[in-house]
Amino acid sequence: MSSILLRNIKLLVNTANPQSALRGTALAELQSLENAWLIVEDGRIAGFGSSDQLPAALPASTIDVTGKMLLPAWCDSHTHLVFAASREEEYVDKIKGLSYSDIAAKGGGILNSAKKLNAASEDELFGLAWQRLQEIMQMGTGAVEIKSGYGLTPDSELKMLRVIRKLKEKSPIPVKATFLGAHTYPQEFRENHEGYISQIIQEMLPAIADGKLADYIDVFCEQNFFSPEETERICLAGMQYGLKPKIHANQLSLSGGTETGVKLGAISVDHLETMDDHAINTLAASSTIGTLLPTAAFFLRMPFQPARKLIDSGCAIALATDYNPGSSPSGNMNLVVSMACTGMKMLPEEAINAATINGAFAMELDKDYGSIAVGKKANFILTKPVPSLAYLPYAFGQSQIEKVMISGEWI
Ligand code: NIG
Ligand code: FE
Question: Are residues 43 and 11 in the same domain?
Fold first, then answer.
């Protein structure tokens, strides 16, 4: 049995073990312990407490972390990190003034990624995604959700989901898989929505269920993409196979995605850049989590999500990266937390809760991840010596991470 004691932890952050996602004023309550110790045994948290009450029997292996903080690793509940190629040429086109539709007309956007993914082999895609997974772990991510949606044909969607399954099998951090066949209409189905929807429902979903390739179903509910009615139909079909909805909602417009997600009992509705009172109140009255993706808003030069209003209205809020080549080519949760504080006026405590325990709830991983509780997995961020908790989002763009522990091992 391997056992390690971390002692003289300046601040042991997020020691709560809530039974449901935090909302309203509870989001700002970040239970933490000053001057603490923690014991890891066989990859899990065996105990923790305050330094003046050290247990009698101590493990042989002891690490003194004076001046440093220990946080639960980030739980990134929304990514598209399987993709074949970056899209910086579109980024430059946008700088030069081209619009989203100009870029789409040039063959850019999601269809550009789909074309490249179609041409890539499963091994190539796995290699690229594996590299990205290592990078986000180094930046403190200890649990992640990954979507398909750059395949857009039965063969390619299944290929993407098999890559995600292989990541799941090999990854030291938990991976949740989401089927996002309804990301956009492929060119040949532009004028034949029914044709693509029936391909999703009749061909893709049965094969995905058969191979147990997904945990969740997602739809890009947006004007010129999938309508609320189409979203509902696709999600209900997925739910028949046990896939719970986690949907893209209210990114570019008041799409009705939030209301549709709540009606379906979605685990989460994600993005939420464009919200009105009806959408906010509907979300607040539900158990669906609102997942905010500030780096996507930043990268698309859109107004940030109205986090203050959402929290103050009582919504449960999580934070995630949306890591993808089109709208958020970054999987850095530290930057997300900082942007949430600076751009959306979330308190550091709120942002850290939203990026840890609420992210875990948004992936149904809360029993084992997202906070410091006895029995949970030992997935941690050990900071460099830092003056205070608020210093983490304040000192943006500079890593404050000294080391990351996954399942009791430093990586
Ligand atoms: O979450 N909004 C839809 N999908 C992605 C971006 C897709 C892309 O441009 O590749 C997102 O932002
Ligand atoms: Fe997304």
Answer: yes
Q: Could you tell me if 344 and 304 are in contact, meaning their C-beta atoms sit under 8 angstroms apart?
A: yes
- The model's pLDDT over 35-82, given as tens digits with 9 standing for 90+, comes to 999 999 999 999 999 999 988 888 889 999 999 999 999 999 999 999
Atom 8, ligand 1: residue with shortest CA distance? 326
With respect to residue 325, please indicate whether it lies within any of the assigned structural domains. yes
Q: Token pair of 185, please?
A: 């209409």
Residue 326 CA: nearest ligand 1 atom is: 9
Domain containing 113 — which CATH number? 3.20.20.140
Task: State yes or no: pLDDT of 248 exceeds 70.
Answer: yes
Q: What are the start-end ranges of the H helices in 120-268?
A: 122-138, 154-170, 193-198, 205-210, 228-239, 257-264
Q: Could you tell me the distance, in angstroms and rounded to a whole number, from the CA of residue 288 to the centre of ligand 1?
A: 21
- Can you give the pTM of this predicted structure? 0.97
**CATH number of the domain to which 17 belongs:** 2.30.40.10
Element spanning 49, H or E: strand 44-50
**CB of 392 closer than 8 Å to CB of 95:** no
Cα of 79 from ligand 2 centre, angstroms: 6
User: How many angstroms is it from 251 CA to the middle of ligand 1?
Assistant: 10
